[in-house]
User: Which sequence fits this backbone?
């Protein structure tokens, strides 16, 4: 158990809908990262937050947004969902940005039908 | 563009055998390189992390090597076990705020 908690584990929704994925980082970790992993694809970095502020942005679509709250948990919001958004979404956390090991949650499997 | 290329894409070996996975990267500047193990449908778990000044690092039956001059890394698994069946992902960090660069992974299958 990495200490990073993601909910829900599975999510099935229809095209055009909006969903929210939640991540609770390890106790004491200030950085949260979101990644997308599509079938047979490598992990794609979406966005990073550090102590409540956006720190780095990767290949995140405009339909997606995220935030980190004062208690350090983070939410990833996906809207106007398309079939191609079906993927595993991972959250990772680390004490400091980037230069330390990142610990991954178990992921949320999103299926858009 | 920063890239991480891994080979082979997939590998099947018999239990008890050794194997070596390769990673070539073009990330520049380079700060560190990590190897992760990802079981199917689960989150990646870190095996090793090496800075540019480190040549080798071991974690049990896993030994990672790094050649920062040729921008190559390898992960050697000795005396493979069935539980080693997983994807092994090479990840680099350039030290900037633009995130990590992930390889697509090598899918390793250990057969009894």
Assistant:
């Amino acid at each position: 158990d990495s200490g990073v908690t993601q909910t829900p584990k599975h999510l099935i929704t229809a095209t055009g809908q909006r969903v929210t994925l939640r991540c609770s980082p390890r106790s004491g970790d200030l950085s949260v990262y979101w990644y997308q992993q599509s079938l047979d694809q490598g992990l794609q970095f979406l966005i990073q937050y550090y102590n409540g502020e956006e720190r780095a942005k990767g290949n995140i679509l405009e339909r997606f947004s995220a935030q980190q709250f004062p208690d350090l948990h983070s939410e990833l919001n996906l809207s106007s969902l398309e079939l191609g958004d079906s993927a595993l979404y991972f959250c990772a956390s680390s004490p400091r940005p980037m230069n330390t090991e990142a610990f991954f949650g178990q992921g949320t499997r999103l299926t858009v039908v | 563009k920063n890239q991480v290329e891994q080979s082979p894409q997939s590998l099947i070996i018999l239990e008890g055998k050794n194997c070596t996975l390769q990673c070539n990267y073009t990330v520049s500047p380079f700060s560190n390189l990590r190897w992760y193990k990802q079981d199917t449908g689960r989150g990646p778990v870190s095996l090793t992390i090496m800075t540019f000044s480190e040549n080798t690092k071991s974690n049990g039956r896993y030994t990672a090597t790094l050649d920062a001059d040729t921008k190559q890394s390898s992960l050697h698994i000795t005396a493979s076990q069935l539980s080693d069946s997983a994807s092994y992902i090479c990840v680099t960090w350039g030290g900037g705020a633009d995130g990590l660069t992930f390889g697509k992974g090598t899918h390793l299958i250990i057969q009894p």
Summary: The interface with chain B takes residues 2, 4, 33, 35, 40-45, 48, 55-56, 58, 88, 90, 92, 97-99, 101-107, 109 of chain A (CB under 8 Å). The radius of gyration of chain A is 13 Å. Residues 57 and 107 of chain A are 19 Å apart (CA to CA). The first strand of chain A starts at residue 5 and ends at 7.
